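ENTRY TYPE: paired fold submission
RECORD: A
CONTENT: sequence, then structure tokens
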Amino acid sequence: MVIFFSALIILSILSTKISAKYGIPLLIIFIIIGIVVGSDVLNLFYFDDAVLTKRIADILLVFIIFGGGFQVSKNSFKSVAGPALTLATLGVGLTALVLGLFIHFAFKINFIHSMMIASIISSTDAAAVLMLTKQNPIKSRISTTLNVESAANDPMAILLTMTFIQIMIGEIQSPTIAALHLIWQFLGGAGVGFAVYKISVFLYDHLKSENRGNYNVLLIGVILLAYGLSELAKANGIIAVFFMGYWLGNSDFIAKRGVSNFLESISTMCNLSLFLMLGLLAFPSKFIHIWKEGVIIALIMIFIARPVAIFLCTIPFKYSIKEKLFLGWGGIKGAVPIVLATYPSAYNLDENGIVFDIIFFAVFLSCIIQGSTLGILSKIFKLAEKPLPTSPYTVELHSITKSDIDMFEIHIVEDAPSANIKIADLNLGAEALITSIVRDDKIIMPKGNVKLKSHDIIYLLAHSAEIDEINLKLNVSQTCELE
């Protein structure tokens, strides 16, 4: 069994090369691996426990969604806060409503039941969207809108799904109670997230441990603390960890760079485990009985429900028709809808697993149709941008005490004023130091007579307060703080 799981992990990691080369969402690859080794194909591992899947997936989602919030920068958030948050809240609700009404009238299913199904599949997948916008660079405003929306809209889908489930099992019996419950879930979760964020910053700044691993273990502890406290307060734990991740990711605290790297590893492991587990839970032989419903729901979601939500929610904001169409096409489904599809079974509302099978099939179609064509569409609509070079090296500044000096990764754009200028003549100031230059995937020693060139990546040690002024001198395209 140990060898079996180790082989799965190694095979999944190697498959990321296929994803990077052909632009196939990792979600599809990981799930296919799970399906192939699962009960219906090779039958190497039999797994059909939806309740256990929900319990494991709930914990995995905590770290995945925390990582999504952690990656959302304050500047990016501010630039698209209005449209992105509108799409992540009202947009999810409108998508669920349009799809729910269609399911209700087309399939003659009870309205509340229809809304539960629609809510399950109403959110987009942060992991798939982030990966695709990274592989296919898109104009900043559009890519940031998609990234922030996809990172922030999962909590709303979870709230709606749980609300309709609780109505169906009799825990919520009036619209007023349902509305109040929804409001408390959101506000209570955000409040707990803010409180634990403050506690986390205090702990990191006062730990002062020489063992870097202690900071990583502390991260796991505070994430679970936020989730546990919100559950204790009957608030929403997913919202708590998302907002905690956002606030913590935009704060300065000791060992942040090391913690960020560790979080990336944890998020990758959780995504991998989640997708493989969901693939194992799927029984493709059942799809023959529900493929028509799955196709219809997927097509209505892609071509009607999502576009309607996009066009209505972006009315107050300045987006062109092409940009709105692209945002609509960027509503790729992923792990969260599949996880939520296990909830009805866990509450004895989907004894035959029909809801799970339909949602699984619809999500799979979304990944194939939208995920494999998003890059092509960005070029057709002329929204694509030239990708920035990436550095094969990392320069890290690790400190166990507070400091206003940080390490910055800076990309020199084409035809920048600093190109072809010697380092000694840059006049960056006495408190700024270029520590290394990456050029054509090689490290160059930053001696005074070395000239910078377009597309160089430089690592700069400087005061945080001065970095904007240095950016103006160098005319950079992007600055990434490394702490």
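RECORD: B
CONTENT: sequence, then structure tokens
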Amino acid sequence: MRTVCNSGPLIHLARAGYFELLRLLFGRIVIPPAVYHEVVVRGRGQDGARELEGAAWILRRIPRRKDLITALGAFLALGEAEAIALASERRDTLLLIDEAQGRRVAERLGIPVRGSLGVLLQGYRSGHVTDLEGAIARMRERGTWIDDEVVAAVLTAAREGGLP
């Protein structure tokens, strides 16, 4: 399965100290140009910029569905629109995205989605993340807003082995 990633998970997992978890879980990751620009160019010196710039396993691809990017651009940021368009080009694609509106749009298009906490939970279950609660705390300390109920659901799922 191919994995396309939006900016949020790149930034948030870098904040948690688990940027490499993306490579460990998914191998190669594909991002559109707007995501690279948001994280590396506009985000120079911020969380995720250095990590993304040095990650040879993250490939940049230009989405072909310009019509979809234009349509989504009416209510989503360019990075989200490009990531969704790129993910929509192949059926066997997982989209890593945190923003609620972008997730809803992707799901309506039939694209499976997972957020930063879902990636951390998967890493926890596979043994790559040993302190899930600490990783979430680091994300929050560095500026990632996460609803308390979502955190509680993820930690409960980690304890019980279910889905958040």
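NOTES ON RECORD B: The chain has a mean pLDDT of 95. The chain has one domain: 2-117.
STATUS: closed
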